[in-house]
């Protein structure tokens, strides 16, 4: 956490750290399946395309559940919301480990998704209540950095646990830690945290406002492009680089480590440049980098450089897009951020579903084409959305 937190009361700094750690658990619970995909499909004797449903179902449940749950619990104390949400993450992860079939795992993943979809947007409300208005962006960055840290630390560890002790062990570990985190949140998050109540009517108003909806739609195609490849990253690494076990975990650690770096530097980039300029530049870079992941060098060193650059660009959008959305309508920031999280998971669902259809194309060429097509659409949606936003401001 930044040294800027030293100016905050000790309780506020501790709360921000706890919320960030909770987002770390949400990130692991959501994406640990990526590193376990090969071991799960082999253990259950299912096709890799079927295994992708574990990610797709989670993403769909999150996308639908997050804004509805945030609106439905809009008047609940935030301490209750984050504690219940983290409990769902823990219970869902343990149920996933104990499920006797793919169908049972899918149901457990839906429960986990509801917990994550409720938790992450609620932390935004708590974070902004703890700091002055001029430091809200910084507070949001501190809280959500835990989510990206999960990519760099938690997921490689989860992959190693899965390859070494079995995928059930990885899910059990995530579940136990999440339940412990729920207890910690109840003790740390202030009971009287101030927040702006939300409602389903406000949610509906946002969803029928064209410029807001177009701004949110960018996230769908941007994230969908990355997950068209990321869904089968472990398989790609196994086939193209000849790595297994600890080798796959190492590659995932590089990917995740660069995601963490992206989270650290993206807030500084957003302060220095317009968010939309950053996002358009990232689209151009990804259009070059993403095909190289599946069609580029097979030498391990060069492949890792490509993978690191891809991860850095893929995850640098998060703070810029959040900042872009908050400036559209600061009063509806909590619901806009919840909807942006939903759109992220719509993108994951779309990307993973598309990946399962394109996987049979030889040598992963279908994945490369699908990723580039979606990032091109994301760039177009970004430009159209910005024009609509500018027109709305002129007319207001």
Would you write up a description of this structure?
It is a single chain. The protein has 396 residues and is an all-alpha fold. It has a single domain (3-395), classed as MFS general substrate transporter like domains (Growth Hormone, Chain: A), CATH 1.20.1250. The chain is built from 16 helices and no strands. It has helices spanning 10-44, 48-51, 53-72, 78-98, 102-129, 136-165, 167-188, 200-207, 210-230, 233-241, 246-272, 275-295, 300-315, 317-328, 333-358, 365-395. Helix 1 (10-44) runs parallel beside helix 4 and helix 6 packs antiparallel against helix 7. The protein is globular and about 55 Å long. The chain starts with 9 loop residues before the first helix and ends with a helix. Mean pLDDT is 86; it is low at 1-6.
> If helices are DSSP runs of H or I spanning 4 or more residues, what is the number of helices?
16
Fold-level CATH name: Growth Hormone, Chain: A
Radius of gyration: 20 Å
Number of strands: 0
Q: Return the average pLDDT rounded to an integer.
A: 86
Helix/strand-derived class? mainly alpha
> How much of the residues is beta strand, in percent?
under 5%
Number of domains: 1
The name of the CATH superfamily reads MFS general substrate transporter like domains
Report the CATH C-level class: Mainly Alpha
Q: How far apart, in Å, are the first and last alpha carbons?
A: 39 Å
Q: Secondary-structure element order, as H and E? A: HHHHHHHHHHHHHHHH
- The outline comes out as globular
- The CATH architecture designation is Up-down Bundle
Uncertain ranges: 1-6
Largest sheet: none
Tell me the helix content: over 70%
């Amino acid at each position: 956490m930044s040294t800027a937190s030293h100016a905050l009361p000790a309780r506020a700094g501790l709360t921000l750290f706890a919320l960030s750690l909770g987002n770390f658990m949400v990130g692991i619970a959501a994406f640990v399946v990526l590193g376990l995909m090969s071991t799960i499909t082999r253990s259950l004797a299912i096709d890799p395309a079927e295994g992708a449903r574990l990610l797709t179902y989670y993403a769909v449940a999150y996308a639908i559940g997050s804004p509805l749950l945030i609106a439905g619990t809009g008047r609940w104390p935030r301490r209750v919301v984050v504690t219940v949400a983290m409990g769902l993450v823990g219970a869902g992860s343990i149920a996933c480990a104990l499920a006797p079939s793919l169908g049972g795992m899918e149901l457990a993943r839906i429960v986990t998704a509801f917990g994550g979809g409720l938790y992450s947007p609620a932390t935004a409300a708590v974070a902004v209540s703890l700091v002055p208005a001029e430091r809200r962006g910084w507070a949001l960055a501190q809280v959500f950095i835990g989510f990206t840290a999960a990519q760099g630390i938690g997921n490689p560890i989860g992959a190693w646990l899965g390859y070494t002790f079995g995928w059930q062990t990885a899910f059990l570990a995530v579940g136990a830690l999440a339940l412990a985190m729920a207890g910690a949140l109840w003790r740390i998050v202030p009971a009287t945290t101030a927040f702006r109540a939300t409602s389903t009517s406000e949610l509906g108003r946002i969803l029928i406002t064209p410029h807001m909806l177009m701004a949110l739609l960018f996230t769908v195609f941007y994230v969908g492009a990355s997950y068209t490849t990321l869904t089968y990253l472990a398989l790609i690494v196994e086939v193209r680089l000849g790595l297994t076990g600890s080798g796959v975990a190492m590659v995932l650690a590089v990917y995740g480590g660069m995601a963490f770096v992206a989270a650290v530097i993206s807030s500084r980039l957003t302060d220095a440049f317009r968010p939309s300029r950053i996002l358009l530049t990232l689209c151009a870079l990804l259009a070059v980098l993403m095909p190289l992941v599946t069609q580029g060098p097979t030498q391990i060193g060069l492949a890792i450089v490509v993978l690191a650059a891809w991860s850095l660009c893929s995850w640098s959008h998060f703070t810029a897009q959040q900042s872009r959305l908050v400036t559209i309508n600061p009063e509806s920031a909590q619901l806009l951020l919840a909807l942006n999280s939903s759109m992220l998971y719509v993108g994951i669902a779309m990307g993973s579903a598309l990946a399962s259809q394109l996987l049979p194309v030889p040598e992963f060429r279908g994945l490369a084409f699908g990723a580039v097509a979606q990032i091109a659409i994301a760039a177009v949606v970004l430009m159209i959305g910005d024009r609509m936003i500018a027109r709305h401001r002129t007319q207001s």
